[in-house]
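Why does residue order matter? Because the sequence determines the fold. Keep that principle in mind as you read this record.
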Amino acid sequence: MRITIFSMGSRGDVEPLLALASRFLAVGHHPVVVSSPDHAELAAHYGVDFAPFGPPLSSLMSEEVIELVESGDMIKLMRVTAAQRKEAVRAAIPETWRLGRDSDAVIFKGPAALFGYSIAEKLRVPCAEVQFFPVTPTHAFPPFLLGDGQRRSGLGDRMRWWAAERITWQFMQRATTNAQRRTVLDMPRISLSGVRRQQEREGMPLFYAYSPHVLPRPSDWPGRIHVTGYYPTSAPPEWSPPDGLRAFVEAGDPPVSFGLGSVPVAGKARLVEAFLTALERTGRRGILVSGWTGLGRDVDLPDHVHRVESVPYEWLFPRVAAAVHHGGAGTTAAGLRAGVPTVVTPVSGDQPSWGRRVAELGAGPDPIPIKQVDADRLTTAIETATTDGAMSDRARELGALLRAEDGVGRTVELFEQHVRRWRPPAR
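Structure:
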């Protein structure tokens, strides 16, 4: 099959799907990943065909977006970024049909790539969705998109699930999806209520690419929904750590790492200062991963701290005493798979919920929201993560369970089963 895989977003949104595409390729299919041009080089590392779509991610960043990300105001953030995406993607919408029209099957990473679902509907070919955090309402836990991961009353959580669905559809999907359907595909608009009920009638699979050991599958989800296990990523075959990084890691006790991936934040100097002070107080060495945020680029670091622009977490995390990060789904997966204690400093979105879940599992201390990160809180968290024997044991045990899973293989198996059973819905 020619399987077109659509995803919009940062490296964390795309790289796990490159791992999935690589497995499809290995079993004889022809996957093509369609995403932001930023990820073309990464796709080449995985040996997967890639088609660029839309503007570079850097063009969507602004001071307003950075401030909103850190504020935690998800509703306003989604409204602003939706307006940006609507403007930026609208010009590229005609490309979706050119990129997808030869597909035998479609997989899209929701919610930003819902246009992939419309292409599959137009072609009358099998389709599935991949998500990295829960978006399906349940009584088992509160929504990951809104809030801090803590339960409220039953009615309160139901209302938050309802709000999360409505906000996602209105701000992230409706305008671009219906523009594509109307102007490119000559298809009727999707109703104001969104597409979930239509997808449930069709039995379209939804694959949650996280581990049931981390977040068990709720019993009130329909049968089309699968919790497959993580899609682990890997360092490019030709990659090797810079000599300075390898030498630093091997020169003493395992360091503590700190990075925020591609999450934009304000107040970088404050965060770096808190990390350096916490390392000094705990007597720990540190690795500062600058990432897109640029942490520590303009700071003279002491000898016991090493800065690196970026590094595959699959190489780094097994070599640290604890990992401090923002709690993105992919970064959390890498830390838990490595079996090291995790300190989550969530910024927004699903990150507070993953941070809360890590603490509930005993694999890390309570999360510290990014606006509350200071030297005192970070010192306490790092001290706990690096000295609590029970926490280290639990992180190590959980890591072994996660490394034994094959979420990519399970997804390939389930998708192939779906294709074999699939029949086009009646018009």
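The domain at 2-230+406-421 is CATH 3.40.50.2000 (Rossmann fold).
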